[in-house]
Amino acid sequence: MNKEIVCSGIRPTGNIHLGNYFGALRNFVKMQDEYNCFFFIADYHSLTTHPTPENLYNNARQILVQYLACGLDPEKSTIYLQSDLPETIELYLFLNMNAYLGELERVTSFKDKVRQQPNNVNAGLLTYPTLMAADILIHKAAKVPVGKDQEQHLEMTRTFANRFNNMYKKEVFPLPQAFNFGGELVKIPGLDGSGKMGKSEGEGNALFITDEPSVIRKKIMRAKTDSGPEQMNQTKPQEIENLFTLLKVVSTPDTVEYFDDLYNRCQIRYGDLKKQLAEDMVNFISPITERINAINSDEASLKRIMDMGKEKAHESARRTIEEVRHVIGYRN
Ligand code: TRP
Predict the structure, then answer these.
(1) Is the CB of 46 within 6 Å of ligand 1?
(2) According to the model, what pLDDT value does residue 201 have?
(3) Ligand 1 pocket test: which of 6, 7, 8, 41 has the largest number of ligand atoms within 8 Å of its C-beta?
(4) 49 CB less than 6 Å from ligand 1?
(5) 185: which DSSP letter?
């Protein structure tokens, strides 16, 4: 019953693509049985870069629907909107009292943002790491499944947690660790020959779980290739390796071997490879798209899911915030 607590936030930046799926989401789905998981859509954090967002709720809702369609299970995990849990903000305030300007200014993501949006270097941007720490510590999470780019933020979370514990002389917070469930994460390349799906903005670089079959086929048929192998058993250039990587995640091992063999004998026809990849991709993505549509068309049960997530998150957060208020010395 006493499962370890896992917590992760998802920025509502855009539709889920295959890179998100194989890089993180698929592991979130698997974690749900072994851990007490809290997954939330980080719709407060969005204001640090987009102070007057269009469709704020709708974007958050859409990402939530897509996560559910991929297999996040509201019965097993606590899935909620960050903005449904104002306790986080109270903890954010307390943590900010002991977060120092110097350490916040040294955070890489802050320095990047200062460069990217010199006219909007707001305090929310500066205190992004304390909000993220509050997200995690509000549930006393021990493990946080995040990518490399978030490691510095997680280090700050440990700093803030540890400082709080020392300051008030009580082990209120565990020190959360980055966490990579089930070992390797599959890195999905882009269709434009780039190393990472979703990295470049280029039309057609990424395959989204919301893409219609016709769109999937078109994107794959247009994927970058070269003029073909010239020597037997030569190493594949990146754009060709990329197609094989995609084939490996959605096709059978036999299919991969079949095309690999043709490549090695210089008899491959990229058109055939792409057609096969497109069909296997459609078969992989279509059921997810259908679930997205089904969830979207049942507003009442989506509302129930959101309310349940909010309630479960609130229960966990309330316990923490009561303890924190008590430890600092406020009236409970
Ligand atoms: N900063 C994370 C990102 O950009 C999102 C995030 C917000 C998060 N709060 C979190 C991740 C808490 C893990 C835990 O991807």
Answers:
(1) no
(2) 67
(3) 8
(4) no
(5) P
